[in-house]
Design brief:
36% of the residues lie in helices and 18% in strands. With 428 residues, it is an alpha/beta fold. The strands form 3 sheets. The protein has an 8-stranded mixed β-sheet with strand order 4-3-2-5-1-6-7-8, with helices on both faces. Strand 10 and strand 11 form a beta hairpin. It contains 16 helices and 17 strands.
Length: 428
């Protein structure tokens, strides 16, 4: 538990934390969160506001949108999850984490005044605290990242002007459904009645998002149809191209040190920015580079070997990780430290890493429910991979240090964050 959480433990211990217990079915709805938002003692939610959902890329899209706001001289409020080292990271205004002396009284107020049939959950409490802090700070744009799904997520009780659905893939199937159409149906409601929607989905998922937008009378803007990136070129200094926007403009774009998956996130963020903050300058050449810890975060060890920390935990995100590794270090095999929270499609995810890795080390997570490392190791051995088990993250890092090529820590943000702290890159 981080120091801030320890300080707030008397308050946090009153809240059910489904992020850590990981129930195998949905145990929440919007009743409690709506009651908090509509309570007479709750501040007026800030506008404009946007909610960002999807299976992959929502955190990156949110961070890029906030960075574009700051580059334009506007103050963004950014609410994301999970956190890596301190729960204060979840609530940021103008690039700064909420201070402990601001968060604590908000949580005390919430617990003292909430009078619904049940106590708010941890995520509901943090969501309300984000709304209240953004209102106090008079942000120019409130950005809310969905925690899980969309239809029943606490952020869906907050009033917003636009919704973004990034990508859809099979994930959280025990809660969201076991088909692309079902999962898209759970995530599409971030696009609100009469509102504005943006999406980079395709195929069956796009058909579901289109149908939802039509049913609720929302205007839907689709990547590749209403906005997009043309003439994309990858160079040593990052991504270059031309961004065409819903308002008809075409602008040169340069995203320094870009990862492959960030192109779509930047396109979505820029399109939403122009619609939510019309008239604000859109800075794209170069575009601001947000801090994205544990999202293909690269560090070079004293022995000159790169470490890559990435919280990827779905089949698509692990596939994108593998592609980026090969783009940066073509032909080199990597060593992977892997762990998975329960309920993830880790077999499918590992299938994307098998072709590029010549060694795996598996371990278990702390702070949340974890898949048995013995099960992971048995699966990898059956696939013909070299694999060993490590008692904990520290032992896993020690095992990876024996590998001469790139070393990768992935499978969970919990794992990547723990490795980041042990490698000395966590804030002190």
């Amino acid at each position: 538990m981080d120091r801030d959480a320890l300080h707030l433990a008397p308050l946090l211990d009153q809240l059910v934390n489904y992020e850590r217990s990981r129930p195998d079915r949905r145990l929440w709805d919007l009743t409690t969160m709506r009651g908090l938002v509509e309570a007479p003692w709750s501040p007026e939610p800030p506008r404009p506001a946007v909610q960002i959902g999807g299976s992959k890329g929502k955190g990156t899209t949110a961070a890029l949108l906030a960075a574009l706001c700051r580059a334009a001289g506007r103050r963004p409020g950014l609410y994301t999850s999970p956190h890596l080292h301190s729960l204060r990271e979840r609530i940021r205004v103008d690039g700064a984490d909420i201070a402990l002396h601001d968060l604590e009284p908000l949580l005390r107020t919430l617990l003292a005044r909430a009078t619904g049939p049940r106590t708010p959950t941890f995520f509901e409490a943090m969501t309300w605290a984000a709304l209240a802090h953004f209102a106090e700070q008079r942000v120019d744009l409130a950005i809310y990242e969905v925690g899980l799904g969309g239809r029943h997520d606490a952020t869906s009780a907050l009033p917003v002007d636009a919704g973004i659905v990034t990508h859809i893939e099979l994930e959280h199937t025990d809660v969201l459904g076991d088909t692309i159409a079902q999962i898209a149906g759970e995530k599409a409601p971030v696009i609100r009645p009469g509102g504005l929607g943006f999406t980079a989905t395709h195929g069956e998922a796009l058909a579901v998002v289109r149908a939802h937008a039509a049913a609720v009378g929302a205007r839907l803007l689709v990547a590749g149809e209403h906005f997009g990136l043309a003439d994309a070129r990858w160079a040593a200094d990052g991504l270059h191209g031309r961004l065409w926007l819903p308002d008809g403009r075409e602008l040169p774009v340069h995203l320094p040190d870009a990862r492959t998956h960030e192109a779509t996130a930047l396109v979505l963020a820029a399109a939403a920015f122009t619609q939510l903050l019309p008239g604000a300058p859109l800075v794209l050449d170069p575009a601001p580079r947000p801090d994205l810890p544990c999202r293909f975060e690269v560090h070079v060890a004293p022995d000159g070997v790169p470490w890559v920390l990435d919280g990827a935990h779905t089949e698509q995100s692990l596939g994108l990780l593998a592609a980026e590794l090969q783009r940066r270090w073509p032909g080199q095999s990597v060593a992977v430290l892997f762990a998975s929270a329960t309920g993830k499609r880790w077999r499918e995810g590992l299938s994307r890493l098998l072709p590029i890795a010549d060694r795996f080390v598996v371990t278990e997570l702390s702070g949340t429910t974890s898949e048995d490392p013995a099960l992971l190791a048995a699966h990898l051995a059956a696939a013909g991979a070299r694999c060993e088990r490590a008692a904990d993250v520290e032992a896993g890092l020690a095992a990876l240090r024996r590998h001469p090529g790139p070393r990768v820590v992935t499978g969970s943000f919990y794992l990547a964050a723990a490795a980041r702290a042990l490698l000395g890159h966590a804030p002190r």
